[in-house]
Design goal:
Oligomer: single chain
Structural class: alpha+beta
Shape: globular
Largest sheet: 9 strands, antiparallel
CATH superfamily of the largest domain: Electron Transport, Fmn-binding Protein, Chain A
Mean pLDDT: 97
Radius of gyration: 23 Å
Low-confidence stretches: none
Number of strands: 21
Bound molecules: flavin mononucleotide, manganese (II) ion
Strand content: 15-25%
CATH class of the largest domain: Mainly Beta
CATH topology of the largest domain: Pnp Oxidase, Chain A
CATH architecture of the largest domain: Roll
Number of domains: 2
Length: 475
Amino acid sequence: MVPNDLRSFLEATKASGDLVTIDAQVDWDQELAGIGRLACERNGPAFLFTNVKDYAPKWRVATNPIANWRRMAVAFGLSADTHVRQLYDTYAEREQHPIPPVIVRDGPCKEVVVPGDKVDLFDLPVPMVHDGDGGRYLGTWDLVVSKDTKSDWVNWGMYRFMVHNERLLTGFPRPTSHLGKMLLDGYVPQAKPMPIAIAIGCDCLSHLSAAATFRIAGNEADLAGGLRGSPVELVKCNTSDLYVPANAEIVIEAEVYLDRINQEGPYGEYPGYRSGEMGNAICARVTTITHRRDPILTVDTTGFMDSSATSTSITGAIAIKRRLEANNVPVVAVYVPPEGGVHLAIVAVRKGGAEIAQRVVNVLTVRRALISKIIVVDEDVDVFNMAAVIHAFATKCHPGSGLHVVRYKGRANTLTPAYTQEERVSRSGASVALDATWPPEWPRDATPVRATLDSMYSPDVQRRVLERWSALGLK
Ligand SMILES: Cc1cc2nc3c(=O)[nH]c(=O)nc-3n(C[C@H](O)[C@H](O)[C@H](O)COP(=O)(O)O)c2cc1C
Ligand SMILES: [Mn+2]
C-alpha cells in the first residue's frame, strides 16, 4: 500500500529496516545533516532525530526520505527490494493515469497556527546543512504551491529556501522554473504580491511530483494523485487562496516581494559541489505558519547521491525516453544513474551509429540542457547495469570520432560544476553524446562479438550452464 503521509512512510521504512531513530541529542549545526550526508554516500538509512539541540522534543527532523531505491520503493507501496527497473516501470505506468485532488475542510497540518506577528523561523529546528552555506535552510525537501494570475494553473515545485531572518526567507527558484515563470510573466507585470505556500513533510509521492519536470500549465497535484493511486487531499491556506496537502507536517504561508530581493546561498548543491557565491534571490515574507502538534521537519542533505539524484533519475529518465520516442529515436531504455549528479544519462537504442547519437544529443538540448553527457549504447546493454555500461563505453566508443558535441548559449545548466564563471553568466555550455554503439554500416560478420555467456555461447550451452548454476544454489 502506498503510504498516505510522511508518518506512515516512516513506519513502513522502519519495518523494512530502512529507518534509524536517533534519540541522543544531535546539533542542528552541521552534525544532523552530516549524519544524513554520510548515509547518502554509503547507501545508509533515513534517520529520524528526536532530540535536536536547542529545540523541544515535540520538534523532530527526518533526513532524505527517498534518497535511495529501497525507500523510493516503499514510497511507491512496493517491497523495499524492488529493482530500480520496476520502479521506473511503475512510475511510467501510474504517470499515465492522473487523479485530480479533492478539497477537505481541515487537516493535521492545521493543528497549531502561528499568526504572522508571532512568527520566528528560528523556532523551527532548521539545520545548517553544510559548512560554508549562506545560512540555515528550511526548504530542502519541500513542495512549493503557487497559482497563475491568468488561469487555473496551480504549480507545485521543489525549490530551496534559506532563513534570512525571523520572518523572511530567500529562495532560488530558477527563472526557467514554473514558479519563476508565474512570477515574472504574471505577478510582476500586474504588480500583485505573489502568495506562495511551502509545504513540508507531505507524503513522498507528492514531493516527488513537485520535483518532477511537468508540462507548463500542468497541475502536479494530479500527477501526485496518479502516482499514489488516490487523490491528494488539499486544505485551504489561512492567509491566501492557495491549497496545500492536508497531510503536511508544516506549512509556511508567505508572500514574495516584488520590489525587494535579498541574498541567498551559497549552498552545497545537487551536482555534489558548492560552486556558486551568495547571490540575489527572491525574498518572501512569512504570513503564517501552521503545523502538526508534534511536527517532523524533513531535510535533504543535498550533495552526492542526495534526493535529487534518485528523484530526478526516475522522473528525468522517463521524460527523456518520451521525448526521444516523440522524435523518432529508436530508444528502448533510459537510465539516469544517481552517481552522475543528474548530469549523465544512459540511452539504449535499437539501432545505433553516429547519426542516431547526434540526433539524441540534438533532441535533448533543444530547450534546456540539465543533463550534458549521454552515453548511447546498443539494446543488448542493460542500462541499469553500470558494469555493462562502462564496458560498452570503454570499448565501443571511438575516441576520435565517437563524441558528438552540441554547443549552445542561453540555456545551459548554470549549476554544472565544469563550467567557467563566464559560461554560467551567459548560460553557455555544451552537451555530448558518447556513442558506444556499433556502427550499423559494419557488416555483421565484421562486428566484434561480446565474450559473455549470453553472446558467445550456443543457446543450448547457455541453458545447460544456467541449469547447473541454479542447481548449485548460486545466484
Ligand atoms: C531536493 C531538490 C531541490 C531542488 N531545489 C531547486 C531549487 O532551489 N531551485 C530550482 O529551480 N529547482 C530546484 N529543484 C529542481 C526542481 O524541483 C525541478 O526542476 C521541478 O521540475 C520544478 O518544478 P517546475 O517544473 O514546476 O518549476 C530541486 C529538486 C530537488 C529534488
Ligand atoms: Mn510545474
